[in-house]
User: Which sequence fits this backbone?
C-alpha cells in the first residue's frame, strides 16, 4: 500500500499538540473511535511501556500556551473543555481503571506522550492497580442555617435598653460562632467516619458560594475512594451521618473517575528514572 | 452511548444528576495531575486554577475583586 504524501513531520508538530485525557492499561480501539474528544474529533490511543494514553489531537492555535491562557478565562470555553475531557475520562472509567490527566495537559507530539508513559510506568501501573474496582464519591456538607442555634430571647437581666441590646447581640454572635464551630467539628467527624469505610479520603477546599450557587456555607468538600463492594455501606453511612449531625446537610455525588486520588507526588520516590 | 452517565446500579439511591460544573472543576483543575504536558508545564499549577476560577466567578456576576493591592 502506498500512502499519499504525508505532511512533513516538523511542520505537523508545529501546528498541533496532543491533549492527554488519561492513562489506561488497555483500550478497545474500535470503541475509542466513537468517543468524541477536544473539538469533537474522535480520541485515539498512544501506546508505550505496556500502557495506553488516550489523547485528542489539539490544534495549537486553540490549545497552545498563549491561546490556553486566553481560553481558560472564557467560561464557555472552559466549561466545554472540562465537560469534553470529563466525558472521555468517564467513558474510559466505565471500561476499567483510568488515571485521569488534569485539564489542559498538552504535549507537543505523540512521542513525548510515549516518553512520559515510559518514564512513569511504575508509578502509573501502581496507581491503576490501586484504582481497580474502586470509584470516587464526593460528599459535601453545608451548614444548615439556624439549626440548633440556641434561642437568645431570655428577658432576664437588669440594665437599660442599650445594655439589653448589647447582651442580646453578643449572645447572637456567640451563637453563630458556636454554630460554625459545631458544624466544623461535625464536618471533621463526618470525614473521619467516611474515611473508615473508604479506602482513602481527602478534602478539597470548600467551594465558593458564588461558584456553587448554594447560599449555605460549605463545611465539608470531601472526596472518597470507595471499593465497589463497600458502596452500599458507604451510602448508608452518609445517610446515618446526616441524621446524627443535623447542623450539616450532606450531599453525595458520584461515581466520579478517581480524579482526586491520582495527584502527582512532588518528588517521585525513586521509581521511573531521572527526569531532569 | 458514549456520553450517557449511568448510575452504577439500578438500586443506587442516587438518581441521575448532571454533573455540576463547580464539582467538575474541583476535580479536573485541582487534581488529576499525572503527567505534565510540555505546553501546560509552563503554566504554573496555581496560575491555571486561579485563572479559571476568576473566569468562573466573573461570569457568575457580583464579583468583588479580592484585595486589590
Assistant:
Amino acid at each position: 500500500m502506498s500512502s499519499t504524501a504525508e505532511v512533513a513531520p516538523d511542520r505537523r508538530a508545529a501546528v498541533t499538540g496532543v491533549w492527554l485525557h488519561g492513562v489506561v492499561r488497555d483500550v478497545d480501539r474500535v470503541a475509542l473511535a466513537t468517543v468524541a474528544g477536544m473539538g469533537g474529533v474522535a480520541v485515539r490511543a498512544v501506546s508505550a511501556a505496556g500502557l495506553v494514553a488516550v489523547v485528542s489531537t489539539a490544534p495549537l492555535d486553540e490549545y497552545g500556551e498563549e491561546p490556553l491562557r486566553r481560553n481558560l478565562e472564557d467560561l464557555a470555553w472552559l466549561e466545554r473543555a472540562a465537560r469534553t475531557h470529563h466525558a472521555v475520562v468517564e467513558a474510559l472509567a466505565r471500561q476499567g481503571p483510568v488515571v485521569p490527566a488534569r485539564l489542559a495537559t498538552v504535549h507537543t507530539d505523540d512521542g513525548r506522550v510515549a516518553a512520559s508513559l515510559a518514564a512513569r510506568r511504575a508509578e502509573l501501573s501502581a496507581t491503576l492497580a490501586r484504582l481497580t474496582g474502586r470509584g470516587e464519591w464526593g460528599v459535601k456538607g453545608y451548614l444548615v442555617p439556624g439549626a440548633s442555634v440556641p434561642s437568645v430571647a431570655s428577658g432576664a437581666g437588669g440594665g437599660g435598653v442599650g445594655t439589653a441590646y448589647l447582651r442580646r447581640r453578643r449572645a447572637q454572635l456567640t451563637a453563630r460562632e458556636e454554630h460554625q464551630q459545631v458544624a466544623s467539628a461535625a464536618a471533621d467527624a463526618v470525614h473521619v467516619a467516611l474515611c473508615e469505610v473508604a479506602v482513602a479520603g481527602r478534602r478539597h477546599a470548600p467551594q465558593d458560594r458564588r461558584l456553587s450557587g448554594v447560599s449555605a456555607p460549605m463545611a465539608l468538600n470531601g472526596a472518597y475512594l470507595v471499593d465497589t463492594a463497600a458502596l452500599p455501606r458507604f451510602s448508608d453511612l452518609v445517610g446515618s451521618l446526616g441524621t446524627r449531625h443535623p447542623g450539616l446537610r450532606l450531599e453525595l455525588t458520584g461515581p466520579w473517575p478517581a480524579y482526586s486520588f491520582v495527584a502527582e507526588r512532588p518528588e517521585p520516590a525513586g521509581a521511573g528514572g531521572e527526569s531532569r | 452511548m458514549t456520553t450517557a452517565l449511568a448510575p452504577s446500579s439500578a438500586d443506587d439511591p442516587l438518581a441521575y444528576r448532571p454533573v455540576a460544573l463547580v464539582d467538575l472543576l474541583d476535580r479536573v483543575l485541582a487534581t488529576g495531575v499525572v503527567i505534565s504536558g510540555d505546553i501546560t508545564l509552563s503554566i504554573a499549577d496555581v496560575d491555571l486554577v486561579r485563572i479559571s476560577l476568576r473566569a468562573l466567578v466573573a461570569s457568575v456576576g457580583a464579583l468583588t475583586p479580592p484585595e486589590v493591592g
Observations:
- The longest helix of chain B spans residues 45-60.
- Chain B touches chain A through 46 residues (CB under 8 Å).
